[in-house]
Amino acid sequence: MTTMSMAGALNAALRNRMEADPKVLVMGLDVGKLGGVFRITDGLQKDFGEDRVIDTPLGESGIIGSAVGLAIRGYRPVCEIQFDGFVYPAFDQIVCQLAKFHNRSLGQVRMPITIRIPYGGGIGAVEHHSESPEAYFAHTAGLKVVTCSNPSDAYWMLRQAIESDDPVIFFEPKRRYWAKGDVDTDATPAPLHKAHVVRPGRDATVVAYGPMVATALDAARAAAEDGSELEVLDLRSLSPIDTDTVVQSVQKTGRLVVVHEASVTLGMGAEIAARVQERAFYSLEAPILRVGGFDTPYPPSRVEEEWLPDVDRILDAVDRVLAH
Fold it and tell me: Residue 1 has what pLDDT?
């Protein structure tokens, strides 16, 4: 058992897979000599060379297009998109090529590509650096979409994503990069697409993922002081969704609040609410509520804390579902 930051755990996972498989490559803007903007790839180019840790030109479409070609030739590229808002120039390659190639080839060609995307707000960044675009990719058939919330999951989920023969969009909550936790590198990891109950409870279920898991846990601790026990569930996988675990929790508590940083309209919360309504309608004691960002572009950093979901907004939703 080792204590690591999330950034350190991601670096360790990359190093582990590169040591184990010479076909694993890391590529992206400034991932080599600089070690990445957030230093996730620090030291890898020094140890594995410029042929395996590749500093690319500034062009996200070219990064993903090149990765598709490498995958066809048997490599396992790990691409870094420097910031969430920079992924859109690569959207055509991801949706029209990466997501469809396995079907287009009648199952003959796999696309074992992992695309790492730091996402979300809370770091005081400028425009295009604090977005939450996960729903675009979760909506795209052919892609797997996951996100970690702690160092242990960061380590194991990134390893599992790189080992997968499917294309995986790997969202990393950038404001949690420096949070520390225990990582057991000898453990047997949970399945990549399995949700985790991170705090058991009986009164209401709070589903969150990525950067909002820590906020949801803070809300649960505050609620406990008033006598309410919230069950907090870390979704972990956005495509596919572990609906069974969510439904089992709601059948126990009878109430559900879904929390995410992205804007509420057509976000992941809408899909989770629809699935729970389909499968656990008669277990519900109150309407399903969603807590998320507002339906506006991400604001300037000086007011981002007003935009981001916080403990008070989660507790307000919890109070409303408990009032029924």
Answer: 87
Which of 147, 111, 137 is closest to 10 using CA atoms?
Answer: 147
Instruction: State phi, psi for 121 to the nearest 5 degrees.
Output: -105, -160
For domain 196-322, the question of CATH label 1.20.1270.360 is answered with no
Q: Do domains 2-183 and 196-322 have the same CATH topology?
A: yes
Beta bridge partners of residue 239, listed in sequence order: 145
pLDDT in tens, 218-238: 999 999 999 999 999 999 999
Give domain 2-183's CATH architecture: 3-Layer(aba) Sandwich (3.40)
Report residues of the chain scoring pLDDT below 70.
none
Enzyme catalytic residues: 129
pTM summary value: 0.97
CA 298, distance to chain mean position in Å, is 18
How far apart are the C-alpha atoms of 279 and 272, rounded to whole Å?
11
**Coil, strand or helix: which one is 98?**
helix
| Domain locations along the chain | 2-183, 196-322
What is the spatial distance between Cα 267 and Cα 211, in angstroms, rounded to a whole number? 15
